[in-house]
Design goal:
CATH class of the largest domain: Alpha Beta
Number of strands: 5
Radius of gyration: 17 Å
Structural class: alpha/beta
Number of helices: 10
Order of helices and strands: EHEHEHEHEHHHHHH
Helix content: 40-55%
Distance between the termini: 24 Å
Largest sheet: 5 strands, parallel
CATH topology of the largest domain: Rossmann fold
């Protein structure tokens, strides 16, 4: 995995760089503010950006929005020591694929990181129902998921069950991963969502999933 670390504290960047290298990942760049994070992401196109939620010069939320809009293939993961749910909510609304609390253990950090890289969202369950309220648009004809084709609905329902990686979706649907990506693109567009975390939030909002999973500890 090729990672960009964006944090305004040099000690945090060094610690993350060392930890990522220890687990066999490549750190291809660092940034100490939001503006630099966007510029470095444009230049090196990392697979993932690990971004502190609070940085100077350009806010992290603005940086997340720009990276997600210009380079949607890059997964942005928010790192924060704060319990500020509103900040995490805004980050996901602007395109973040996940949220990690800086207090988690290293093994859990890498388990969640690998999950996000494979296409699974990392989102506190208590926030999922609220995410949609920020970005979903419901027309007079009913909720947006009613516009989905039967196959797109299958994709949505599987994701609501927790099956979110391209490979696992392809296996369950007996189609290729490219076909899954095609259906996902349509699902994102029709539901006015930007990533899988928001699709899962949509599923919670409209009761397309049973019990919510326990939030990350």
């Amino acid at each position: 995995m090729r990672a960009l670390i964006a944090d305004d504290h040099s000690l945090v960047r060094r610690a993350l760089r060392s930890l990522l290298k220890e687990y066999g990942h490549e750190v291809v760049g660092e940034a100490h503010n939001g503006l630099e994070a966007v510029e470095v992401a444009r230049a090196i196109r990392p697979e993932v950006v690990l971004m502190d939620l609070s940085m100077p010069d350009m806010t992290s939320l603005t940086a997340i929005r720009l990276i997600s809009a210009e380079m949607p293939e890059i997964k942005v993961i928010v790192l924060t020591a704060s319990e500020d749910d509103e900040g995490v909510l805004e980050a996901v609304k602007f395109g973040a694929s996940g949220y990690f609390n800086k207090n988690i253990e290293s093994d859990e950090f890498f388990d969640l990181l690998e999950a996000v890289i494979s296409g699974e969202p990392a989102l506190p369950a208590k926030l999922a129902p609220r995410v949609l309220d920020e970005f979903a648009h419901v027309d007079d004809g009913g909720p947006p998921h009613e516009e989905l084709t039967p196959r797109e609905r299958d994709v949505l329902e599987l994701m609501a069950e927790g099956i979110t990686s391209d490979r696992d979706l392809a296996e369950r649907l007996f189609v290729s991963e490219n076909t899954v990506k095609y259906h996902l693109k349509n699902v994102f567009g029709k539901l006015h969502t930007r990533n899988r975390a928001q699709v899962v939030a949509y599923a919670f909002r409209y009761g397309l999933v049973g019990e919510e999973p326990s939030p990350p500890t």
